[in-house]
Amino acid sequence: MRQVVYAFIFMTVVGLAVVQQLKQSKPGDGANAMAMATKKPGSPQPAASSSNNNYRSVTLLSDRLGHFQTNVQIDGRYIDFLVDTGASSVALRASEAARLGIHPKATDYTVMMQTANGIGRAARVRLNRVELKGITIYDVQAVVVPDTALSTNLLGMSFLSRVKWTHEHGKLVLEQ
């Protein structure tokens, strides 16, 4: 139970820190320090979604703890995520970012955040394409966080705010 509380506190603090940094940053600010994900081809994954030409809907079911965990394709590679409406941004663990070819330098970790383990830093990045079972969002802001500060990747509001979503009775429905 203590880990769940720490995880919740951490996710909330990361979200608040990212919002603060986004408010303070200007378009184009730190463009040289921003790591850019490279596009890699990938095979499509069967989707639990319904779609026609202009409309896509994905329904995620909560796990026994009430969390929504899912597999997301980022620039052609699949990564596991915890959906977190309290996180302002998509947050990637450094090891997962490295799998995507994203390698921020030590000097890129400029976003300050408070975690359950203390004060930490994250690096801002942009993801070319984030796809959740047929719902595709381009040019998504994200942060890379040291593995020691984050136990799982978070699918936060920099993705979720660009789709319509509803939560009811253990189901999270995302529409595009």
Quick overview:
It contains three helices and twelve strands. The chain has 176 residues and is of the alpha+beta class. The termini are far apart.
> What's the SSE pattern?
HEEEEEEHEEEEHEE
Helical fraction: 10-25%
Number of E-state strands: 12
* Major pleated sheet: 8 strands, mixed
- Spans of at least 5 consecutive residues with low confidence: 16-51
Instruction: Please count the helical segments.
Output: 3
Arithmetic mean pLDDT: 78
Q: Which overall shape is indicated by the principal axes computed on the Cα atoms? A: globular
* Secondary-structure content class: alpha+beta
Quote the beta fraction.
35-45%
Question: How much is the radius of gyration in Å?
Answer: 16 Å
List the defining traits of the structure above:
176 residues, alpha+beta, 3 helices, 40% strand
Write structural notes for this entry:
This protein has 176 residues and is α+β, with helices and mostly antiparallel strands. It has 3 helices and 12 strands. Strands 1, 4, 5, 6, 7, 8, 9 and 10 form an 8-stranded mixed β-sheet that branches. The protein starts with a helix and ends with a strand.
Give the SSE layout.
Blueprint: H1 2-24, E1 35-36, E2 49-51, E3 56-61, E4 69-74, E5 77-83, E6 90-93, H2 94-99, E7 111-115, E8 118-132, E9 135-145, E10 154-155, H3 157-160, E11 164-168, E12 171-175
Parallel strand pairs: 1-8, 5-10, 6-9
Antiparallel strand pairs: 2-3, 3-12, 4-5, 4-8, 7-8, 8-9, 11-12
